[in-house]
Design goal:
Elements (H helix, E strand, L loop, with lengths): L8 E6 L3 H13 L1 H6 L2 E7 L3 E3 L4 H6 L8 E3 H4 L4 E11 L4 E6 L2 H4 L3 E4 L2 E4 L3 E3 L7 H4 E2 L4 H19 L4 H7 L1 E5 L3 H17 L12 E5 L11 H13 L2 E4 L4 E3 L4 E4 L4 E3 L2 E4 L3 E3 L16 E2 L12 E3 L4 E2 L16 H19 L13 E5 L5 E5 L2 E4 L1 H14 L3 H16 L15 H6 L13
Parallel strand pairs: 1-2, 1-8, 2-5, 8-20, 10-17, 11-12, 11-17, 12-13, 19-21
Antiparallel strand pairs: 3-4, 5-6, 6-7, 9-18, 14-15, 15-16, 22-23, 23-24
Helix pairs in contact: 1-11, 7-8
Length: 457
């Protein structure tokens, strides 16, 4: 009697970020034989066909790295996986099914239902916004490569506006840049863009660095808490030395009518409000039957399985993972890239262990510190208890993130761009029309352009 064929095990990975990509890469390698025999299948559902290496977004915004080189094409690196571009709308883990909206959903009017055997939830996070008047209309986020490109174009366009008018009110609004949030994203984006704009000013006959006003708004008493209190104070001093207005214990109360109103009573005319004030769990987590903690993240075990549930796993921003290296009980690992990449490896290995009825591994990694760039040749770092600032910290930032960006292809391209950037001048041109590529043709064809061809906001 012929043996009964083995069932194909489907692993569904929700999200194509750090955890999604690295988990899929791990499974692709560990289950190579099973994938070849058709005994296993890995499906990655991601809203974008690429993974964004977010620590490089500030440099992409400043033009130090090409935007295409801060993303990793999922289909190219996940050759053994099925990549589905779409978003998971809901998950019924009791029935092992997920409802997925794809790019074809608008055409067909119906969503797909995917069944699975093992679930990996790694949808990441989204920007945490507040009901501030004018924020939805005028605010600019900084979580995606598209936002980084748009912000770079926008900053240069504001300099073009200021250069082409004598109206003091218009010039003031165009040359005032408000960043809300003193974490990595806000400080690094501000530092890199101020550096770029300062350089670009040499090509404008009537705009100087002194004409520009850069403001960092932070609600707490310090910025960059990850690098420690001393390095945080140094960062404030360094930014203020560059005439950047750092306002601690301050909140944005309104940006309606292009006027930024702060809680300390200050008011600024501005056409640029960049919102980087934190993130919150992805909404798909609330559309599952899996256990969440009080902050909306999945309750997980140190083995990265969802607590109290079988065949469900999570890591990264979506997961509340106990920190077994912490001295105090109840502490969780920080939702950052350093943990996400390492958790993904353990998560991938544990899924393989579970499929083969082997003991699971415990995720244990003591946080080694943080590095941050404050612009070209400027940075701060707090690594293994050592405090570093200036050029050495900036160099450490580049070396560390170059070692962490996925694939040799991307490492080589980023290194080549840095090398060329050291030999030639910066590119300081805006390509804002990319955001509305059909506007010029629509106008030529006698129609009404669907958007502002310059993409200003």
């Amino acid at each position: 009697m012929a043996p009964e064929p083995r069932k194909c095990v489907r692993v569904l990975i929700v999200g194509g970020g750090y955890v999604g990509l690295y988990t899929a890469l791990r499974l692709q390698r560990k289950l190579k034989a099973e994938l070849r025999k058709g005994e296993a299948e890995i499906v990655v559902v991601s809203p974008d066909p690429y993974m964004t290496y977010q620590p490089f977004l500030p440099e992409a915004a400043a033009g130090a790295i090409s935007p295409r080189h801060v993303i990793v094409p999922l289909r190219r690196v996940l050759e053994g996986c099925q990549v589905l571009v779409g978003e998971v709308a809901s998950i019924d883990h009791a029935k092992r099914t997920a409802t997925v909206s794809t790019l074809a959903t608008e055409e067909t009017g119906s969503r797909e239902r995917l069944s699975y055997d093992e679930l990996v939830l790694a949808p990441g996070s989204i920007s945490r916004t507040l009901p501030i008047p004018g924020l939805a209309e005028h605010g600019i986020g900084f979580k995606t490569v598209e936002e980084a490109i748009g912000l770079r174009n926008h900053v240069i366009e504001q300099m073009d506006i200021a250069s082409s008018t004598r109206d003091p009110a218009i010039r003031e609004a165009a040359l005032t840049f408000v960043f809300v949030g003193g974490g990595f994203a806000g400080v690094e984006a501000l530092g890199e863009l101020e550096d770029m704009a300062r350089y670009a000013a040499r090509y404008y006959h009537n705009v100087t660095p002194e004409d520009m006003k850069w403001i960092l708004v932070e609600a707490s008493d310090r910025i960059l808490p990850e690098v420690g209190e001393e390095m945080g104070r140094y960062t404030v001093t360094e930014l203020r030395r560059r005439n950047i207005d750092v306002r601690l214990h301050t909140r944005l109360e309104s940006c309606a009518d292009r006027i930024a109103v702060l809680s300390d009573g200050a008011r600024f005319r501005t056409r640029t409000v960049v919102w980087t004030a934190g993130v919150k769990p992805h909404p798909v987590l609330a559309a599952t039957d899996l256990p969440l903690n009080g902050r909306g993240r999945l309750r997980c075990t140190p083995q990265l399985s969802v607590d109290g549930v079988t065949h469900a796993w999570a890591a990264g921003d979506a997961a509340a993972v106990p920190d077994v290296t912490a001295e105090e009980s109840g502490k969780e690992t920080a939702p950052n890239a350093q943990h996400a990449v390492r958790q993904a490896r353990v998560l991938g290995d544990n899924i393989v262990h579970a499929l083969r009825d082997e003991p699971l591994e415990t995720y244990a990694h003591k946080y080694v510190g943080s590095v941050a760039s404050l612009g070209l040749h400027k940075g701060v770092a707090h690594v293994y208890g050592r405090k570093v600032k200036g050029y050495p910290a900036w160099f450490m930032h580049r070396v560390y993130h170059l070692s962490r960006v996925p694939t040799f292809n991307r490492k080589a391209r980023v290194l080549a761009e840095w090398t060329l950037a050291g030999l030639f001048k910066r590119e300081v041109v805006s390509l804002g029309s990319l955001e509305h590529p059909r506007a010029e043709f629509e106008l030529a064809a006698g129609g009404k352009p669907s958007g502002d061809p310059k993409g200003s906001s």
